[in-house]
Design a protein that fits this description.
The protein is built from 19 helices and 25 strands. With 547 residues, it is an alpha/beta fold. It folds into two domains: 277 residues, Rossmann fold (3-Layer(aba) Sandwich), CATH 3.40.50.300; 261 residues, Class I glutamine amidotransferase (GATase) domain (Rossmann fold, 3-Layer(aba) Sandwich). Strands 13-12-14-15-25-24-23-20-21 form a nine-stranded mixed beta sheet, with helices on both faces. Strand 23 and strand 24 form a beta hairpin. Helix 4 packs across helix 5. The structure holds glutamine.
């Protein structure tokens, strides 16, 4: 059975628990252990699928079609372990399961309560897959003391209590604020946060202390004494230049050793950190820089495009260049000439998105990229809009648009070159959808295969003609326009295996213009950059040499 590591946070939010969990996962792997990472979120949404990217950042989609928290993206990028539907849960999901059971009569007339019914449901979730790996890392969202988080804290307390001694440990992340006036790092908030944990029956085994300044030995001793942890288990987490230094930095500070000690694993297997040394070397020693525009709608919040930015960085690492992202709000191009903003940039990326706002600007960006021969990657909505640009400006379908925009405005304004997808094949089964369906979890979600045309640019980039990639969309380019668009020069170089759904389009006479209906960014890793991003940055690097 797996050993469980519960990761909690205190003092303030946004301490980077997800990143610390992911880096610890990578360090345990480097010592030869298998790991799985899991996120428990206290909010009441059933999943983040219906949350605005402005609220919650990107929605990370798993192979098996779950819409999850962006922390699962960190977990995958650091460990390479594909997350599953069962690796992400929220209060909303737990409560809806409990209430469904109550309606079915499963509780045989009992009064349903947070303890034990909700906590039991959380514990059952923790158990899933516990026999498959050496370590299960479970991160609890939010901070200790939050009202919504209480059932989760109670459940992990019980879980550790139910299991044999030494099977579970608790790791708590806190902040040591620095008071410039007195030149001191303050430990009191950490002490209070640990007290809060202790008051609900959880005694942390490891404290990870975020700090801008080096933690003096004296302060470390004080924290250990007052918080009842071993001094070696007070681990410093300093600010890093890049997140990809986290595994090496945590190793240097002794995090993995502290974890092995807490479980009494001795002798500790020696770590092989060569992968992370190479990753770190590539980030820190680029041989040039490329500037890539992301023309999107949620550009004020970088987290909304988290995986894209990381995948671009991976592409840069593969090509030994630094990728500088220039954020462009697409709506700007509805008022101003895109040339003024895009000239001199080395590549353009139009990401996924929902709703009509900004789309005319994105179409302008696609037109600029096509006519000026600037490398263009269109992802999901960015692919659909590249098709609309081709339809309007090259194939002569001047009112080409997406049904998504007509549904939103309630008016019929466009010829539906992109239409609402009502039926598709998943494995051997047919999936059907209606326009009036619920919004949550009803898109075409998760990994689907695609077949690439031999000799196409994408087949060359992938080095194969069968791929599988993760999807998250409700609308789709209508295959009935294929002939017309292909005679205008746009090639449908990737299709669903049944030939019905366009998955990839490209302009064969362009140096690099590819639109994909899926989200390649979700599968890119620093140690295994996605082929599309790798080649996109290669193309951008070529442009950077010319301009
Ligand atoms: N809004 C579009 C659709 O639902 C694109 C979705 C996306 O970019 N993820 O098809």
């Amino acid at each position: 059975m797996a050993r469980y590591i519960f990761i909690t946070g205190g003092v303030v939010s946004s301490l980077g628990k997800g990143l610390s969990s992911a880096a610890l996962g990578a360090l345990l792997q480097a010592r030869g252990f298998s790991v799985r990472l899991r996120k428990l979120d206290p909010y009441l949404n059933v999943d983040p699928g219906t949350m605005s990217p402005f609220e919650h950042g990107e929605v990370f989609v798993t192979d098996d079609g779950a819409e999850t928290d962006l922390d699962l993206g960190h977990y995958e990028r650091f460990t390479g372990v594909s997350a599953r539907n069962t690796d992400s849960v929220s209060s909303g999901r737990i409560y809806s399961t409990v209430l469904e059971k109550e309606r079915r009569g499963d509780y045989l007339g009992k009064t349903i309560q947070v303890i034990p019914h909700v906590t039991n449901e959380i514990k059952a979730f923790l158990d899933v897959g516990g026999d498959e790996v050496d370590f299960m890392l479970c991160e609890i969202g939010g901070t200790v003391g939050d009202i919504e988080g209480l059932p989760f804290f109670e459940a992990i307390r019980q879980y550790a209590h139910d299991k044999p001694r030494g099977q579970c440990i608790f790791m708590h992340l806190t902040l040591l604020p620095y008071l410039a006036a007195s030149g001191e790092l303050k430990t009191k908030p950490t002490q209070h946060s640990v007290k809060e944990l202790q008051s609900i029956g959880i005694a942390p085994d490891i404290l990870v202390c975020r700090s801008e300044q080096p933690i003096p030995e004296k302060e470390r001793e004080k924290i250990a004494l007052f918080c009842n942890v071993r001094k070696e288990a007070v681990v410093a987490a300093y600010d890093l230049k890049t997140i990809y230094d986290a595994p090496l930095a945590y190793h240097e500070q002794g995090l993995d050793q502290a974890v092995l000690d807490a479980f009494d694993i001795s002798p500790a297997p020696k770590p092989d950190l060569s992968v992370w040394r190479d990753v770190s070397d590539r980030v820190h020693h680029p041989e040039g820089e490329v500037r890539v525009a992301i023309v999107g709608k949620y550009t004020q919040l970088e987290d909304a495009y988290k995986s894209i930015v990381e995948a671009l960085t991976h592409g840069g690492m593969a090509n030994r260049v630094k990728v500088r992202v220039e954020w462009v709000d697409a709506e700007l191009f509805e008022r101003e000439d895109p040339a003024a903003h895009l000239e001199g940039l080395h590549a353009i990326l139009v990401p996924g998105g929902f709703g009509e706002r900004g789309t005319e600007g994105m179409i302008k960006a696609a037109e600029f990229a096509r006519t000026r021969k600037v490398p263009y990657m269109g992802i999901c909505l960015g692919m659909q809009l590249a098709v609309l640009e081709a339809a309007r400006n090259v194939a002569g379908i001047i009112s080409a648009g997406s049904e998504e925009f007509d549904h939103e405005s309630g008016k019929k304004r466009f010829e539906p070159v992109v239409y609402h997808l009502k039926e598709w094949v998943q494995g051997n089964a047919k999936v059907s959808r209606k326009v009036e369906d619920d919004k949550g979890g009803t898109m075409r979600l998760g990994a689907y295969d695609a077949t690439l045309s031999a000799g196409s640019k994408v087949a060359e980039v992938y080095g194969t003609t069968t791929i599988d990639e993760r999807h998250r969309h409700r609308y789709e380019v209508d295959i009935k326009y294929r002939k017309q668009l292909e005679s205008a020069g746009l090639s449908f170089s990737g299709m669903s295996p049944d030939g019905k759904l366009p998955e990839i389009v490209e302009w064969p006479d362009h140096p690099w213009f590819i639109g994909v209906q899926f989200h390649p960014e979700l599968k890119s890793k620093p140690f295994d950059p996605h082929p599309l991003f790798k080649d996109f940055i290669r193309a951008a690097k070529e442009v950077s040499r010319l301009v």
